[in-house]
Amino acid sequence: MTDSAVTAGAGRFEVRVTSDSHFGWVRTRLSLERTMMSWLRTATALIGFGFAIVQYFNRLAETPGTRAAYVPNAPKLLGLALIFCGVASLLISIWQYRWTTRYLWGAPFRPIAGMTGEQRQSPVLAVAVLLIIVGVAAFLAVLLRLT
After folding, report:
1. Nearest CA to 37 among 109, 125, 119, 99?
2. Is 93 within a domain?
């Protein structure tokens, strides 16, 4: 690649400080928040559904007149797998969120962010961490059969 091609390509991604670029940055930042909240909803559903499957089949096995399960550990394993997937999705989403916010608050975009101080932390990270704690507790409860 020649020097002129590198110079021409560099100007293509030049950040200009305008109201359009500022509001584009804000829309992107809010879109990132919505994406994180979607991850939270998905993880909550996975953790809750995994825990519910285990509870339902445990109660069903205790009900008089029901037949014993063909594979007795299948509901527990399925529940553990769903809870694990929920916690893993939260960890992945936090990594993705932090990586993207660092990019958006990077030096090229700082002028169009419109804020001069440190980046603001969003409450979605706190909710994600709390949900990870709940997910790990649910996983341990099912694994150790404390429920």
Report:
1. 125
2. yes
